[in-house]
Amino acid sequence: TQKVVLITGCSSGIGLAMAARIAKDEKKRFMVYATMRNLSKGEALVEAAGRTLGRTLVIKQLDVCDECSIKACVDSLPERRVDILISNAGMGLIGPIECQSIDEMKTVMDTNFFGFVRLLKEILPDMKRRKKGHIVVISSVMGIQGIIFNDVYAASKFAVEGFCESLAVQALRFNLNISLIEPGPVITEFERKVYDEGMKTDLSKADKITADIFTNVYLKNYNQIFESLGQTAEEVAEQTLKIITMENPPFRHQTNTLYTPMTTLKYADPNGDLPIDTFYKMVFEHDKVFNASLNFLKLLRWRSRKSFSMETDKSN
Ligand code: NAD
Questions:
Q1: What is the CATH number of the domain that holds 74?
Q2: Is the complex ipTM more than 0.90?
Q3: Within this chain, do residues 207 and 169 fall inside the same structural domain, yes or no?
Q4: Which domain holds residue 70?
Q5: Do residues 236 and 19 touch, judged by C-beta distance below 8 A?
Q6: Is the Cβ atom of 254 under 6 angstroms away from ligand 1?
Q7: Is 140 in the pocket of ligand 1 (CB under 6 A)?
Q8: Do 95 and 202 fall into the same domain?
Q9: 13 CA distance to ligand 1 centroid (A)?
Q10: Catalytic-labelled residue, pool 153, 218, 222, 259
Q11: Is 218 an annotated catalytic residue?
Q12: Which tens digits make up the pLDDT trace of 130-160?
């Protein structure tokens, strides 16, 4: 029998790529409910879905900030069954916190964190009853490591990760799996939207030094980071497909091997100073960037030797 997959935020980016890829599974193992907040934005997904539309892919409305919309969507599914929930809808926010209103920050938390919690409140009880299910969350490397001027976004992803770490132990008791997918930079609308919003930031509330770092260091290098490290949404989709077909899926999966040396710094130093010092050097001490990059490359080689291979699924 086909597994029912419900994905949020499918009008663009990673959500769209995952919906299309999973629906096109060669063995037709999945029935995909690709959801989006605004159905009038479905054109790109319809095109990407091609012949799978109406067969292994159905588009439905779902706003993760609206409990009624979540309930209506789940109620409309046969037996309300969701075997695999992929919580993907999310938004970014960059800039100095002096320039952001609490309301803007709350919208990010409401979408990225409470959006996921609302989904779970609707779907988890059924999964527990069936003692079957896989909860997949598109988190971020910023769910385990903060980045300058991404304070609130990182907090929202840390919230998701802390929540899942707590829930994962209980979930095991019900035979449920939880997987956090942690992409590094991915080239999507997200990146462009966040950058455009960042460019529009009213910096009058920030002091000169902060405004200067944000404009002349952070924003100036923003696009370059995506160009040099960025993955495609399709790559993330391909890896997510592998994760949902594993018998024993991992709790965490970083999609971008170019980024893992950075997150490895966190685990290499229990005091937590190593990643902070490294980021500081990368951002503020350009002359030392060479050394930092060299260490980065050394770690990269070390890491690739030990690398977690997607092929060596624990179940094999
Ligand atoms: P995106 O902006 O293309 O996709 C986000 C989607 O979420 C959009 O389709 C948007 O309409 C939808 N969305 C926003 N609020 C919603 C709501 N209330 N209800 C339903 N849908 C809503 O960007 P993306 O890169 O595809 O982002 C997908 C996920 O990946 C996000 O959770 C994001 O945090 C995460 N992520 C992105 C990157 C990156 O660099 N692009 C990196 C790591 C993690």
A1: 3.40.50.720
A2: yes
A3: yes
A4: 3-256
A5: no
A6: no
A7: yes
A8: yes
A9: 7
A10: 153
A11: no
A12: 999 999 999 999 999 999 999 999 999 999 9
